Amino acid sequence: MKPASKPADRQRAKRHPTGVKAPRDDRVAALGVLIEASHERVLLLDVKGTIVAANKVSAGCFGRSVPELVGRCIYDLLPPDLAASRKAAFQKAIRTGRLVRHEDCRDGRWLAAHIFPIHNEQGHTAYLAVFASDVTASKEAEMEAAAHQRQLNCLLSELALAEERERRRIAGELHDRVGHGLVMAKVKLDLMRQSPIPDDWASRLEEVRDLVGQAALNTSSAVFDLSLPGLCLEGFEAEAQRWVERMRTLRPDIRFEFTSGGKSKPLAQELGPILCRALRELLVNAIKHAHAQNVRVTVQRSRHDVRVTVEDDGIGCDPAKVFEGASEKGGFGLCSIREHLDRVGGTMTVQSTPGRGTRFALTAPLKDRKQD
């Protein structure tokens, strides 16, 4: 025979017929343990902003203990601007009844809060559960990434502008130098075709030949400028030799020599284009201004430097006036060469005697000394 159950047992069984639900007090205690174990700042507020419950992390951020924090209005614990910002976020959660995410900054520290509305039996918001964490590190990383992106966008814009300026420069050179020369050659040929063969036809044909040759040289120079970014893939010596061979093809009446002291190797990203532009300028200068019949190019490398010499047997020049700028034919280009070499720690020297040719020597470090 079963013993009669006690009244308390019957009452408990009535409330919990399955016998598996923990008493409400135990559930609240368990919830409190979970909140306290959180590394985030956890607050429970009523709709007026009064702190109903808090964990130690939150209390520590306010410089108080949990008992000292409970019962205080959160808006009284914050600076006015910060209190207004958070009150607006809390009111939005109360008004919409939905989760609200909010970020603000205090004393250089960024705080991200998730605000959860808790509804009563009538479906109205009775409390707000606030879970906040310090996101300063991620925010700073985000702002740094944004700053880098803005910097990258500026650089890309500058690059696009530089490319456009370079295209316009090359287009201008093709129009002014190549186009003008070809037009003049055509005019002279038309005049010769319409007129009886003059006694000086040979000299006139020579003028036309020179115009066409100069146009071909200018075209090759412009093509060189367009292809310059990829010149260092096979090495500077290989590109220098190709440029000398190109000059030999354009001006078969001039004897070109090329000597390299070793195997062709790529140079530093900045140094290769500088030396190639310098070599191009010196070769064009020897043809156009020095009126040379023989041009010799030598490339040598040591352990720390690369040395390029360009020698010709032309009319020579006054070394003191070579770098005087735009007043000297070709001077602007030569002055620009020296400035670019100086920027990477290199040098440019010239030896010449009027009527006895010119020797240019370019020296550049294989490693930028100005960065050491």
By CATH, the topology of the domain at 234-372 is Heat Shock Protein 90
- Give me the side-by-side strand order of the main sheet: 2-1-5-4-3
**Gyration radius over CA:** 42 Å
The description of the largest β-sheet is:
5 strands, antiparallel
Q: How many strands?
A: 10
Beta-strand residue fraction: 15-25%
Categorize the overall geometry.
elongated
Quick one: CATH superfamily of the domain at 234-372? Answer: Histidine kinase-like ATPase, C-terminal domain
Distance between the ends: 100 Å
- Can you give the helix content as a percent range? 40-55%
Instruction: Report the mean per-residue pLDDT as an integer.
Output: 78
- CATH class of the domain at 234-372 equals Alpha Beta
Q: In the CATH classification, which architecture of the domain at 234-372 applies?
A: 2-Layer Sandwich
- Helices, by number, come to 10
Order of helices and strands: HHEEHHHEEEHHHEHEEHEE
